[in-house]
Amino acid sequence: MKVCKTFQWDCSHCLDLPYESKCKNMHGHTYKIEVELEGGLDDNGMVMDFVKLKELVNSISLDHSTINENEFFKSMKWNPTAENMVRYIKLQLDAKWQPTWPRICRIRVWETPNSYAEETWNATLQEIIRQMKVEQEKTATMKRQLDNSAAQLMGLIAKIKPKQ
C-alpha cells in the first residue's frame, strides 16, 4: 500500500549557472513537496500515521528560508535546484528513519505549478523479503487468535448444549 503527504514551503534562492538566466537573481517559490511511502498496514490500519510523517518532514523544513544559506546546501556545495532539494529531503529523512518504518518510495518537489523534480526508489529484494516475513507473522498471529476464539466458542456451545 502507498500513502503520500504533501507539504508547502516558501523559500528563496538564486542559482549559480554558467549561462545567462533570470534564475541567477534572488527570487522565491512556493514549493510543493510530496513524500510517498510504501509498506504494509500496522496494527492501526495505517502505513504510517500522517501526523508522524508531518513531524519528520517539518523537522527538516526549509520553509521561509534562503536555501543558498542553508548549512547543508553550503557544505555540499549544491546549487539550490529542485533536483537537489529532492536529494536534501531524502538524505535528511534517511538520517531520521527507523528500519521498521515504511519505505520512502518517491519524493517530488514542485518548484512551480508546471515544473517538478522527482526521484523514486524501488524496493530491494531484501526489503520485499522483510515485508513478506512481517505479513506472515501477522497472518500467523491472526490464525492463532482465530483458533483460540473458535476453541472458546466450542467450549461455550458444549456448556449450553443439552446432553442427550
What does this structure look like?
The N and C termini lie far apart (53 Å). The chain has helices at 50-58, 71-76, 82-96, 125-160; strands at residues 2-13, 27-38, 65-66, 103-112, 115-120. A 5-stranded mixed beta sheet has the order 3-1-2-4-5. The protein is elongated. It folds into 2 domains: 2-122, 2-Layer Sandwich (Tetrahydropterin Synthase, Chain A); 125-164. The mean pLDDT is 93. The chain is an alpha+beta fold.
Number of helices: 4
Structural domain tally: 2
CATH class of the largest domain: Alpha Beta
CATH H-level superfamily title of the largest domain:
6-pyruvoyl tetrahydropterin synthase/QueD
Strand order of the largest sheet: 3-1-2-4-5
Summarize the structure.
By secondary structure, the protein is α+β, with helices and mostly antiparallel strands. The chain contains four helices and five strands; from the N terminus they run ββαβααββα.
